[in-house]
């Protein structure tokens, strides 16, 4: 592992970032003192906007699944962008692209959602091989977008392990202008590489499956705490979903309070690891 | 490998099918004498409908990427269903689901596209592990839908090989009520299993990357002929895209002619392998 990535501040890392979306994200984290991303998985526009407005002050990143919103129309994008300006965060559409190059280029740029036009960051599986990165980069690079790769998954029985994870890191290494990091449970710099190759690697590590209490759900999701993820595993950004917005999107005060608490826990762990 | 699956007729296999979507598909293949699926990857509704209408008489299955259609609205689904009734085929939305169980259940049932409501078959990557099948089955099984798993990909440098492919087959084996087969380049029955376990396995093998001439594109896609796929590799359904509809969706006669030619090539190879 490249020594010390996780002991450098987000601000320092922003100055060395090779990709504009990564730089913006790291600058935002430093400025707002938050490494919290909220994953807002609701099916109504009204709830999506209300939750984002409630957690906005506490996050660096909002993770969306735009394709589960039942009443989506093109005006929703403008409303999302208004909240981005109001609260100073960026978007990560969690599309998990997973097709061949030509197809993902169309899925990313076109269709109803036009993801590349508004989402600063998106992500992809590496199972199709290099063509998926080539296809997405053909759309995203000219727009200053960044890509995360799924190097690991937090579900029970995930196949993103071992040589699969190493292949993901190698693809990232070969595409550092566009690939800014990983959805993963631990740091990835230098994985599968010689020490000279990995010396200036700096990947953002975004970790889902975070809860204030460790537990699981009936669909195989497993949870870890912010402290475990950031301090012990070197995660840069913790991703929290229902742990923050629960089951009532109208409970704004409770949602804000939870977001603030996760933000504080995540930041405290980050400050501790800098020492 | 379970001996003889590829020497049984589609009609015989329909009678033993454990899943209603698989049964409908196999019955359709036998009745229309076609093992051709056309993948229609265009961004305008008008072109999508025109191409489907042109190839409809020659296919058992239409493969869609509904999320690349720029002018999608809910009336498009009714128009697609009209063509389904007119030409007697079923739909396969090539969504390549690749997320955790809770998320794929929402992506499959909800959002703008409501894929489960109209697409008889969809597909998923197995990289998240068993939860993805559980999540999709919670929506698809009550509707009589079927799922294909990506056991292999036709792109250069695909990571769906070796133990990954074996894990996909094992997940299919454990979920034969819902998983009807694979996107793959060869037969999968019995892969990684003992002979007794695999004795009554029958998976549909759908093979993309088919062209009348072997060639490739600039994004890493590789092509094989209908004869190679069906006769040598035991593919059940050949998936053809631009090889049929080219670059001019208005050239209806040319598109129909190409579809007929692929249908004939695919069927000839199938009849030959029955002997």
UniProtKB/TrEMBL annotation, chains A, B:
Specify one Pfam family: OMPdecase
- Entry EC no(s): 4.1.1.23
Q: Where is the active site?
A: 94, 96, 99
User: Which residue ranges does the record assign to the Orotidine 5'-phosphate decarboxylase domain?
Assistant: 35-255
Q: Name one GO molecular function term.
A: orotate phosphoribosyltransferase activity
- Is Transit peptide one of the keywords? no
Q: Which residues form a coiled coil?
A: none
Any one GO BP annotation for this protein: 'de novo' UMP biosynthetic process
Against InterPro entries, the record matches this protein to: Aldolase_TIM, OMPdecase, OMPdeCOase_dom, RibuloseP-bd_barrel
**Binding locations of substrate:** 41, 63, 154, 221, 241-242
Q: In which pathway does it act?
A: Pyrimidine metabolism; UMP biosynthesis via de novo pathway; UMP from orotate: step 2/2
The alphabetical list of record keywords is: Decarboxylase, Lyase, Pyrimidine biosynthesis
Lyase among keywords: yes
Tell me its family.
Answer: Belongs to the OMP decarboxylase family.
The family database entries (NCBIfam families) matched by this protein are listed as: pyrF (TIGR01740)
Name under which the protein is recorded: Orotidine 5'-phosphate decarboxylase
From which organism does this entry originate? Crepidotus variabilis
The organism's lineage is:
Eukaryota, Fungi, Dikarya, Basidiomycota, Agaricomycotina
